């Protein structure tokens, strides 16, 4: 196991994964709904605190997987319980643990029925999401990847909006149908390499045909999760109907899993497949950027608007990944984190409006700048971040992706420029309506500004927007080496 | 003769005799239930002890083989029977006067299956098969008659007719094998058959025997009885028929396939076609069902197709995967039927929409049924996923890529109807449907089954290794 290093003496990754699970097992025994809320907040907060140790203990000078643990799981098939994080997964893990307490806070009042079950689902989500980013065994990865569907299905279907049943079933069927071929691909790789270990499956001399087929199976699963155009249709339905916490989890973490899958599996395992199908993926990314922008521009429902903007933003991420140069991939990773912060925050903002007006229509939430100054200030910050305004986090990420794209192909990169303009258009349109509105605004004087809990929910995200925007170095330093190693792996796998 | 080798069988025989004695008196249903449960549980203990001690030996002039393979199956079969007796002991839909007889047939049916998995000789095998079948034929029409509805009679008639036809085919095939090899012992049939494998009569004989056994497994095209019998039989009967006999069928099929030539393409092709047809037919037909038992009937046809994924490999590892999967399937099915038995107030059939809002009416029942649905659908971390993954691995290892892809596609088809059950239970309003009372025994059995489904899914390696050792240990 020379790809794995262990830092420290205790299995921090297992603790991070299973602490929420244990919390979920204890939760039904607690008295009262308030106890459930406080308990979940404590568990997620402790997990977030523990995860900081990953950042401080991380060695950014190596591409190896760190904090490694490995235990035989199903020896007859050489399946192991192996965990580890590298530069690519570290930020995603941290983002997940940090976003969880905010999800609990934003559900404090919004969820009033079946409170305990709700927080059990939230904690199970944390376990499976962290498992996806930390697993270094393909079977383990798949278990977490699929198991996550069950709590998410319940989150949308039980606590969602009016069309929750339709949205949750569509979400489940769509994402499951996409990933049924994933195990077939995994087994096909196993039969060649005789291991399910993800690092060992990289860089194997698979035949070109196998790589192409495996890439397609991977692509279907990951493209649906991202979601890439034209596999995005589950996303608006799921986002709109999900409760605020569910939307935040979807936007901030679940969508990242698809992109993470491309980085972790497609690039290093099937470089020939990437070479063959890369141009098509790039084309779909560009289409997604433009299409997402245009559709977002036409929305009157704020949640829908943010959901479609996700399609566009994730298009930038896949674009950055498949241009296969350091700038593009680093930009993509940073953009994954940025999108998690910014879009998560925007969903939180929409949720706060919804709690007050019980509507997400732009028409009913107009001109509230006068009565909710704190709210609109934060909303404007996140809105500017979403359109990649200089000084915010997304600017750095999107700039890197575009720089990478221009290095790859000027013509293609030029095609994405309208997408940048569109993102400014739909965000400014939303901000203008919400903050100032027109001459015939509805009466919003009864609305109250954010309370302390809500400010605490949004403040950390606002801090990260500015921090990454103004000083991205500490965030980017962790993945330089890993990305360089990844690109080396892709190059090594391609025939000369 | 080492009588201790027969302890599971002896427990069941004594239980059956005692219940027979009880059945001679009036109104002793409750007592019969207790006795039946006691003896079924002692059969479980006996099987467990024999598995742990690794008992093996030949009995009755080599016609009866006790080995790890047979004892593992006996453990699962007796566990299944004990679970059904425990959670279905009220027999809501069986007339009071025949309740002791019901338990008698249940024990005899279990006994038949227990003998079946140890049979290594054609006549023994046939007698065991008939013992188990006839007990089930009688259990189906025991259901209480409802005004204007004699569905139990219809399904019993179908069950018997199809069963007898399948038996005829089986016997016909056996006669070919006997004619070709001059023996009824597997140990003598195998080498003699290997020498004349190219003979069309040999392939015909094997195919016909398999067809007879596919009736028990409910694999296409011998599946026709399944939905009607599932629907027409009382809930407890269906709970038993749905899983336990299928495990017995898999045991015999594996013993039988070990006689066949592993390099033969005809047999593998036959099994592949049956597997694909079963999966697609079962899953597609299940999509439109309203009665949950009927839906599970069709879904069981699809599961028979999945199990065949392991058998087409004609290799020990593939058989072991099939054994693991069928064990998991028995447990998942029992968990689902346990809830159905509890939800049904008067023993009537349960429609999927009757489960509306079950999570508020009986949270534990909804949780058990929901988990078993996700398990049957093949979602991790439940055994349905682990079993399917192992099956796929072995089938792909043997080069059946298309078959595995089709199985994966079927997983995607199947998820819809499993999900619809969960959707109704958790998302729909209960309306004025009454609360469901889970009695204490059923709750405990339900939790145990649920934990088994989870444990087999998360920590499968011991059972997988045991299955592999068992299959490798089957000598002819």
Structure description:
The complex is a heterodimer of chains A (496) and B (476). Chain A is built from 21 helices and two strands. Chain A has helices at residues 12-26, 32-57, 87-106, 115-134, 138-147, 149-159, 164-179, 181-193, 198-201, 208-225, 234-241, 244-269, 271-297, 302-322, 326-357, 373-386, 393-408, 410-435, 452-470, 473-476, 480-493; strands at residues 66-74, 79-85. A two-stranded antiparallel ribbon of chain A has the order 1-2. The model of chain A has no long low-confidence stretch (mean pLDDT 90). Chain B has one domain. Chain B has helices spanning 7-23, 29-53, 68-87, 99-116, 122-139, 151-181, 186-195, 200-217, 226-232, 235-257, 265-286, 292-311, 316-343, 358-361, 363-377, 383-397, 401-427, 440-458, 461-472, and strands at residues 57-59, 64-66. In chain B, strands 1-2 form a two-stranded antiparallel ribbon. In chain B, β1 and β2 form a beta hairpin. In chain B, α6 crosses α9 (226-232) and α11 runs parallel beside α17 (401-427). The A-B interface holds A 73-77, 139, 142-144, 146-147, 149-150, 153-154, 157-158, 164-165, 168-169, 172-173, 176-177, 180-181, 183-184, 187-188, 190-191 and B 374, 379-381, 385, 389-390, 392-393, 396-397, 401, 404-405, 408-409, 411-412, 415-416, 419, 422-423, 426-427, 460-461, 464-465, 468.
């Amino acid at each position: 196991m020379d790809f794995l290093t262990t830092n420290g003496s205790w299995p921090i990754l297992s603790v991070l994964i299973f602490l929420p699970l244990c919390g979920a097992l204890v939760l039904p025994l607690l008295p009262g709904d308030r106890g459930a809320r406080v308990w979940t907040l404590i568990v997620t907060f402790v997990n977030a605190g523990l995860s900081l140790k990953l950042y401080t203990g991380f060695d950014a000078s190596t591409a190896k997987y760190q904090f490694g643990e490995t235990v035989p799981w199903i020896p007859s098939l050489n399946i192991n319980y192996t965990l580890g994080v590298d530069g690519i997964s570290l930020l995603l893990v941290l983002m997940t643990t940090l976003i969880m307490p905010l999800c609990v806070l934003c559900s404090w009042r919004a969820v009033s029925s079946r409170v305990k079950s709700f927080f059990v689902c939230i904690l199970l989500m944390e376990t499976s999401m962290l498992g996806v980013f930390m697993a270094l065994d393909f079977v383990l990865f798949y278990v977490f990847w699929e198991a996550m569907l069950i709590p998410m299905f319940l989150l949308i279907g039980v606590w969602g909006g009016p069309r929750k049943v339709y949205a949750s079933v569509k979400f489940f069927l769509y994402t499951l149908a996409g990933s049924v071929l994933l195990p077939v691909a995994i087994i096909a790789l196993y039969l060649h390499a005789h291991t399910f270990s993800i690092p060992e499956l990289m860089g194997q001399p698979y035949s070109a045909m196998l790589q192409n087929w495996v890439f397609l199976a991977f692509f279907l699963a990951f493209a649906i999760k991202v979601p890439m155009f034209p596999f995005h249709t589950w996303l608006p339905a799921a986002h709109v109907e999900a409760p605020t916490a569910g939307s935040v989890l979807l936007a901030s973490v679940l969508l990242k899993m698809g992109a993470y899958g491309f980085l972790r599996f497609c690039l290093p395992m099937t470089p020939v497949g990437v070479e063959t199908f890369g141009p098509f993926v790039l084309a779909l990314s560009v289409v997604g950027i433009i299409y997402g922008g245009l559709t977002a521009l036409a929305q009157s429902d704020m949640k829908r608007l943010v959901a479609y903007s996700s399609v566009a933003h994730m298009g930038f991420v896949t674009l950055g990944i498949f241009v296969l140069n350091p700038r593009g991939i680093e930009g993509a990773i940073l953009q994954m984190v940025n999108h998690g912060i910014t879009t998560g925050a925007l969903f939180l903002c929409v949720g706060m409006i919804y709690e007050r007006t019980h509507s997400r229509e732009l028409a009913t939430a107009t001109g509230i700048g006068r009565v909710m100054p704190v709210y609109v200030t934060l909303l404007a910050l996140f809105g500017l971040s979403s359109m990649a305004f200089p000084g915010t986090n997304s600017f750095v990420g999107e700039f890197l992706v575009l720089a990478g794209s221009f290095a790859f192909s000027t013509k293609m990169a030029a095609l994405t420029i309208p997408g940048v303009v569109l993102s400014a258009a739909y965000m400014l349109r939303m901000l203008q309506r919400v903050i100032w509105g027109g001459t015939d605004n509805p009466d919003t004087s009864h609305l109250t500004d954010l309370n302390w809990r809500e400010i605490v929910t949004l403040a950390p995200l606002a801090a990260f927007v500015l921090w990454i925007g103004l000083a991205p170095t500490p965030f980017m330093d962790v993945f330089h080496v890993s990305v360089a190693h990844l690109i080396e792996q892709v190059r090594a796998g391609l025939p000369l | 003769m080492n009588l201790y080798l027969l302890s599971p069988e002896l427990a069941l025989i004594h239980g059956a005799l005692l219940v027979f004695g009880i059945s001679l008196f009036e109104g002793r249903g409750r007592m019969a239930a207790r006795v039946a449960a006691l003896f079924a549980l002692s059969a479980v203990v006996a099987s467990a002890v024999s598995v742990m001690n690794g008992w093996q030996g030949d009995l009755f002039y080599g016609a009866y083989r006790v080995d790890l393979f047979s004892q593992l199956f006996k453990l699962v079969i007796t566990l299944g029977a004990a679970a059904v007796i425990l959670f279905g002991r009220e027999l809501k839909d069986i007339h009071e006067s025949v309740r002791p007889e019901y338990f008698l047939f249940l024990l005899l049916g279990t006994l038949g299956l227990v003998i079946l998995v140890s049979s290594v000789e054609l006549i023994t095998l046939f007698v065991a098969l008939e013992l188990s079948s006839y007990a089930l034929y009688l259990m189906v029409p025991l259901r209480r008659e409802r005004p204007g509805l004699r569905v139990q009679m219809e399904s019993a008639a179908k069950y018997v007719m199809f069963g007898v036809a399948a038996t005829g085919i089986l016997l016909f095939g056996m006669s070919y094998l006997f004619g070709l090899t001059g023996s009824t012992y597997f140990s003598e049939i195998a080498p003699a058959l290997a020498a004349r494998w190219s003979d069309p009569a040999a392939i015909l004989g094997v195919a016909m025997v398999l067809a007879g056994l596919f009736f028990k497994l409910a694999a296409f095209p011998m599946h026709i009885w399944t939905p009607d019998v599932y629907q027409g039989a009382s809930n407890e009967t269906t709970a038993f028929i749905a899983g336990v006999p299928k495990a017995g069928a898999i045991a015999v099929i594996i013993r039988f396939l070990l006689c066949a030539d592993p390099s033969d393409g005809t047999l593998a092709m036959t099994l592949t076609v049956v597997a694909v047809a079963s999966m697609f037919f079962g899953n597609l037909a299940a999509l439109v069902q309203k009665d949950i038992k009927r839906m599970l009937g069709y879904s069981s046809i699809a599961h028979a197709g999945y199990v065949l994924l392991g058998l087409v490999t004609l290799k020990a590892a593939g058989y072991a995967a099939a054994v693991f999967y069928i064990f998991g399937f028995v447990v998942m099915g029992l968990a689902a039927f346990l809830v159905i038995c509890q939800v049904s107030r008067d023993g009537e059939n349960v429609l999927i929409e009757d489960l509306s809002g079950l999570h508020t009416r009986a949270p534990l029942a909804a949780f058990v049924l929901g988990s078993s649905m996700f398990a049957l659908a093949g979602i991790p971390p439940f055994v349905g996923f682990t079993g399917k993954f192992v099956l796929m691995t072995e089938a792909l290892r043997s080069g059946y890529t298309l078959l595995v892809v089709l199985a994966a596609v079927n997983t995607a088809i199947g998820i819809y109807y499993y999900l619809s059950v969960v959707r109704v239970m958790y998302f729909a309003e209960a309306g004025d449907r009454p609360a469901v009372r889970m009695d204490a025994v059923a709750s405990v059995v339900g939790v145990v089954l649920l934990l088994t489904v989870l444990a087999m899914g998360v920590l499968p390696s011991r059972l997988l290794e045991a299955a592999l050792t068992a299959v490798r240990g089957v000598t002819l």
